[in-house]
Amino acid sequence: MPVNLSVPVAAELLPVAGVKLGTAAASIKRPNHKDLLLIQLDDGATVAGVFTSNRFCAAPVTVAREHLASGKGIKALVVNTGNANAGTGEQGMAAARATCAELARLLGCTPEQVLPFSTGVIMEPLPLAKIVAGLPQAIAGLKADNWFDAAHAIMTTDIVAKAVSKQVQIGGKTVTVTGMSKGSGMIHPNMATMLGYIATDAAVAQPLLQQMVKQAADASFNCITVDGDTSTNDALMLIATGGSGVQVDAANSAQLQAAISEVAVLLAQAIVRDGEGATKFITIRVEGGRDLAECRQIGYAIAHSPLVKTAFFASDPNLGRILAAIGYAGVADLDVAGLSLYLDDVLVAEQGGRAASYREEDGQRVMQQSDITIRVVLGRGIASATLWTCDFSYDYVKINASYRS
Amino acid sequence: MPVNLSVPVAAELLPVAGVKLGTAAASIKRPNHKDLLLIQLDDGATVAGVFTSNRFCAAPVTVAREHLASGKGIKALVVNTGNANAGTGEQGMAAARATCAELARLLGCTPEQVLPFSTGVIMEPLPLAKIVAGLPQAIAGLKADNWFDAAHAIMTTDIVAKAVSKQVQIGGKTVTVTGMSKGSGMIHPNMATMLGYIATDAAVAQPLLQQMVKQAADASFNCITVDGDTSTNDALMLIATGGSGVQVDAANSAQLQAAISEVAVLLAQAIVRDGEGATKFITIRVEGGRDLAECRQIGYAIAHSPLVKTAFFASDPNLGRILAAIGYAGVADLDVAGLSLYLDDVLVAEQGGRAASYREEDGQRVMQQSDITIRVVLGRGIASATLWTCDFSYDYVKINASYRS
Fold it and tell me: ipTM of this predicted complex?
């Protein structure tokens, strides 16, 4: 079950002027199940995005990158679940392009003005006809107050839909930021993917918007891991419609950046809280490093260790496993005698061994919690990094061993 | 249960002239259980070793490195299970040194002539008094024909003991190589460690012996992974006694190297076959790479992917997961359209997608086997690498979540 994660309240998801959303049940993988989402943008909206670094990136990722780069004003984003259209070769590229062409025809724009996204099973042909047949239903349902429904339509093995809104005051006017995400592992079982969509009614020129989405991603989706697998389809898109009448440029972008990053962090954390088989939400904070890279390197070594993750599942304060992960993280000149390890506020280890003050029952108490912070103080600099992950349970194996069967 | 791995036959484990082994039940972790091993070497033996790269290396690893570097002739190796003496700070160093000092006193040599090894729980104080008390029993039991017993004394969560012998003819004389190993993950649950000991009765000068152990390790223990965790205590030691009267130098070392590497490969594979919760033994062969590094990088991405490993556990030919792992392995300019993926002899993917000839039932048939080869042909060079790993089962989580409780 998701760890301290509630279903979003529909009334708290604020429409973003200039964005309409429509869904459809296209029977892509199973019938009577919403599996298609259309996001339509008013003229003048700008769109920026960051995509997976996986070399086996999915066809829609390639096409979306191309269309974004074409510089045409984006009019629509279309997302299907149930099939990732990844590892599908030339046929997959053709299917992604055909989806854009058909939607462009229906909306009266060019194919380059459409961005396609897919999530689901890898290496199976995209059922193009079903998607094409579902588009009119999605168009018919387009409305601004539809984020709740949209967040549900992009779910795959997610147990809980993920969406959140924030408002900030900029120049005396209210600017809204609403976002949604899906994913329950960096890769899903064989469902590929993390997807995130954040929209604001501020007006932001595309180059600045691209910087803002990169910064938001680095502070959020690039700080989480469930299983260390990087999906073929990951994408985070940021849309700025200008519908609020508020112009944001480099000089006054701080507040909007903060709101967008906050939304991104909540959406990213929601993916971990809903991680496959998760029973614990673990914050890993590495402080006192020489640079960000070594802090992240140590953080990810801890976050990816199956031994650390199974110990947290068992609520077993078997904390030597964390020391071992720090030790093999690959920071070559790390002096292990100089670091300290905390579990929440409990000092566990220092001077290369167990802290004299450490008592097993204190470790045990923290391990029983559902939200836990591991803090590593390296004592060799001023850099720090925070990552979020979950534990590793029987259910992770169950979900991933049995999904397709 | 171990995958296609039999208990060694005692009579097939050949003594190595110049090596005696003795064991004891020292009640380090539980009573009436052999947990202490002494390996005594005749004068003139040379010893070489490779050790863990973990920065949190255990106290005995630090002491063994120091003693090897001192250049004194090594007279004895002492191994305890039940406690890793890792993450134990200054107290742990003192305990490792005291073990050597006491054994040196009993054997009439200097402490620098003793190499200590420990495996077991991390971050708990070494019960020095129990080890000291157990040494006389181990000394009393010293004999040459004792590898079977010795291989059992170093087991922790291993289900099956691991030992093997080979003989080669060099210059018309018979040279024996006998080795043993322990480990059932790169790290054990919270038992740390892979340990390997190989002895030959050839005479080999220490600098050459060090080259030979490095070469053997690179072809064996450095090609396996169970869970990606690198232990704090890993060590592979190579002993050359000269007891056969055969002198081996750089000019005639090829045969002996081959025998040592073959023993090392069998011992390393045995660790994977006995991997925690393993039900499948998986050989990953990456061919046609530009260099060894990229072949290993791709091989380890596959071998470490929890999604790939759970699919093998389920015998589910969900092979897009392998493509995804290849894609995120970090080979930046990899052209995925140029590679081919095989499962045993079945061509699964080529030209960036599923092979036209691929039939699910063929993949399914191979996935049902207990020994499976994944072959990736990169088509961009002549380098290749072979790794060995196992699948990821409920029992892995069970073993690691419940070990200490």
Answer: 0.71
